Amino acid sequence: MTKFSGFSILKHAFTGHKNWTAQWPESQPKDEYDVVIVGAGGHGLGAAYYLAKEHGITNVAVVDKGWIGGGNTGRNTTIIRSNYLYDESARLFDHAVDLWQGLSQELNYNVMYSNRGVLMLAHTVHDIQSFKRHIHANRLNGVDNQWLTTEECKAFCPPLNTSPTARYPVLGGALQKRAGTARHDAVAWGYARAAASRGVDIIQNCAVTTIRRNSNGSVAGVETEKGFIKAKKVVVSAAGHTSGIMQTAGINLPLESYPLQAFVSEPIKPIFPCVVMSNAVHAYISQSDKGELVIGSGTDQYTSYSQRGGLPLIEHTVAAISEVFPTFNRMRMLRKWGGIVDVTPDRSAIVSKTPVQGLYVNCGWGTGGFKATPGAAHTLAWTVAKDEPHPINAPFSMERFRTGRLIDEAAAAAVAH
Amino acid sequence: MLLIPCPYCAETLPEVEFAYAGEAHVVRPSDPSLMSDEEWENYLFIRTNAKGTHFERWRHIHGCGRFFNVVRDTVSDKIYMAYKAGEPKPKIDALLEKQR
Questions:
Q1: Measured between beta carbons, which residues in chain B are less than 8 angstroms from residue A256?
Q2: In this structure, is residue A337 part of a structural domain?
Q3: Do residue A296 and residue A200 come from a single domain?
Q4: Does residue A89 lie in a domain region?
Q5: A232 and A370 belong to one structural domain
Q6: What's the CATH superfamily of B3-99?
Q7: Which of A256, A312, A402 sits opposite B15 (nearest CB)?
Q8: Which residue of A has its CA nearest to B53?
Q9: What is the pLDDT, as a whole number, of residue A291?
């Protein structure tokens, strides 16, 4: 693996940048692996990387039905934050935010993590009370989050409409300064490159059709489009398609798959310095380094695998953004897309062992999986390597739906994650 | 946007008139206290999440206000049919054959 540095760019400049080599090889499946990971998004590739780096397990394959990072890793709005209400969530997401800070250096790949801050707007007295409760809960958990007055919100984000006569007046906001955005593709590519350099095989365009089990019930391997791959351990990290694959191993998960849409505007000069979320009008917005406004809101109301979603959601989102940022109401939208997100009843993830020996699952990230990528991958690798829960992911077991010990972020956030 | 046929109003109307209400034919147990935790988990939380033909409930909130069932393909979002609440689950093979 070529190490990227200022010097290497300078060196390659002399030969017209024609001698860069492929960053990871195109692998074909071997007959057998210690660990097969189903799903080459940020979570799956990250888990392969941490398995290799921290646990010395390098005989690993990451298998995907399409190209790496082509699922929800490439279909989100790249918002990263950790200001969740409950202790369990705060620990998990803050672990991820900690890892995000140094990820570019660790992977020797620029994931363009930007601590531009995430500002959540309060439009009603109820919002103020709810956000202040979040701020206090966060600070007790060591998660940075602070209250801004209307004037401070305007100073932090000048495009905001803070007129008291606005339909949704800004009464203040909760700001997490350490939060921000990253470049989604680079996260998949960076983890893939770092994992491959440690011996991990990345196998694209090879759909896993079935998880096969031994006669004693333990996992035997996976059937794929390119034949059977034997594996001591199998990890499923396939977002909206997780429940279907897990059913082939006889495990029914509390998941439903919904389209989550997002869209970007035509590129414009830098105007928007941070990420703004408004729970009351239900939308979020930031500006990418290319200059596009990146906009999203909630899922469509019905389950679907269409990767498209319906028009009413777009209309709702655009209306919400135009309401809070009237200055954008003549912007033209360039592209829109949908990702299929797997949603649990309590809107918290499942990172867990399963009743099948040697089978692990990472799913249920719903509308908020991108921000968790390093934290999910890091703790998942631990769970797979040691066959036991990591202290941080232990509460996110699949048993909680039986015991009733839910992590009810659905009630806590009441809106988009 | 989905165009949804309401079997009560006998009209096909845009999705915005309706609210999705989850998977259909999930029967509330008659005596929950007799159930094991596993059965209770299955009733409350486990869904088929079908990729393909899906039986689901909708409510015509901006119309007659009534619940009914719809058969939809979750890959193409094509709606095959709608039927009134309480009617038995239609035989899907015959239905698909008829559509073709």
A1: 22-23, 47, 49
A2: yes
A3: no
A4: no
A5: yes
A6: Folate-binding superfamily (3.30.2270.10)
A7: A312
A8: A304
A9: 96
H/E/C letters for each residue in A267-328? Answer: CCCCCCCCEEEECCCCEEEEECCCCCEEEEEEECCCCCCCCCCCHHHHHHHHHHHHHHCHHH
ipTM for this model: 0.95
The answer to whether A156 and A274 are in contact (CB under 8 A) is yes
Helix locations, B12-66, DSSP H = 37-44
State the pLDDT at residue A414: 47
SS3 A130: helix
Question: Which among A343, A362, A382 is the end of a domain?
Answer: A343
- A165 and A220 housed in the same domain: no
The answer to whether A369 and A239 are in contact (CB under 8 A) is yes
Both A28 and A172 in one domain: the answer is no
Total domains present in chain A = 2
Tokens of A280: 């009351």
Domain final position from A313, A343, A373: A343
What is the end-to-end Cα distance of chain B in Å, rounded? 23
Q: Which amino acid is at A279?
A: N
**Claim to verify: residue A193 and residue A215 sit in the same structural domain:** yes
* Spatial separation of the C-alpha atoms in residues A402 and A408, rounded to whole Å: 14
Instruction: Check residue A65 and report its DSSP letter.
Output: S
**Chain B closest CA to A263's CA: distance in Å?**
17
**In the structure encoding, which two tokens stand for residue A60, read together?**
């690993």
Q: Which residues form the domain of A14? A: 8-75+185-253+346-412
Q: Which residues neighbour A193 within 8 Å (Cβ) at sequence distance 6 or greater?
A: A1, A23, A24, A107, A109
Inter-chain contact B45–A304, Cβ cutoff 8 Å?
no
Please give the torsion angle defined by the CA atoms of residues A154, A156, A158 and A162, in that order, rounded to the nearest 10 degrees: -20
H-type helices in B1-100, by residue range? Answer: 37-44, 92-99
pTM: 0.95
* Structure tokens belonging to residue B69: 């069932």
Q: Per residue in B11-56, pLDDT tens?
A: 999 999 999 999 999 999 999 999 999 999 999 999 999 999 999 9
DSSP B34: G
